[in-house]
Amino acid sequence: MWRYHNPVAVTFGVGSLETLAARVAGRSYLLVTYPDTRFAALAEQVSARLGPPVARVSDVAPNPDLADLDRQTARVAQARATAEVVLAVGGGSVIDSAKVLAAAGGGEGAVEALLAGGEPPAGWRPLPLIAVPTTAGTGSEVTSWATVWDRAASTKRSLDHPRLYPEAAVIDPALMCAMPRALTISTGLDALSHALESLWNRHINPISAMHAVAAARTILEVLPALACAPDDLDLRRRMAQAALSAGLAFSGTRTAIAHAISYPVTLHHGVPHGIACSFTLPMILHGLADADGLTGWALREIFGPDLRAGAWRLAAFLEGLDVHLEPADYGIGATEWSEILAAATAGDRGRNFIATAAAVQPLPPRPSDQTPTVPNR
Asked: Which domain holds residue 208?
């Protein structure tokens, strides 16, 4: 028995930003975006289509911190009371921040209760959210949770509730052409991680697996080419569609061991999230070389019949994108690595993993006949 559900209305395609006014449908809105010049211009473009927002939160930083979110929430409290919808225009950090603001708009104490793993107050009704992603990676536009970093407590927290699925996602690949190479790679690898994490997952199902296989195969083919040609609109379109498929895959399964490992790597060593959750993928794949059932089928659809060889091809793919594969490359010593693995296995995401920490071991010596390519199947 399995279940799959995703309520987000998706509009996808080059030029789909033109549909935003119809989606907002005249409602008053709170605009959430980044502070730099490009996004200021994009915010003005949106305002010209929709009319001015009731307020604008334009100081979102990467990996939003709880203290900053508290200040932003307090700053727009009065305007938020008159907003009918929250509009997020930006990457995953913007969409996650917008979910916090949407949750806070539903009633006092809701954010605190959800971050503590509890239920929101009775009668809580978060503001509806429309997401316009400008990166291809996080999948936040089709999930019901947000990542919140609490640096004061040295931890990562989650805001998670079914009512926090966006009402709609408007995905226009043309908005992604300005992404720099490093961000293109990091977000693309985040999407690849979402796809693979949904496959070695206790909540895998046939629908999530089909989305994941399609996403992973496309990313393995497209991302190296896109890193070399970031303004290629067709490559951006294919990458955006793959990231969407990965988001739809893990929106029902959540992530697993690689993401659990990634959080302290990002928090304590400053490694970008997409890199932190992808450098372990080859060792995990190698540890699952004998996987069977739906997981085994899906992984072999992506990497071919020999998953050990596939793990080395995946390693070569990552190395070709300048991703280092050893914990020591990120300043993580043996003792800390053991502690990270133990904590990751014990956490919620680690418990989604179909195996144990024993599957997350350094790759054996590279086979002499290993070719540095991922099969184009």
From this structure: 178-359
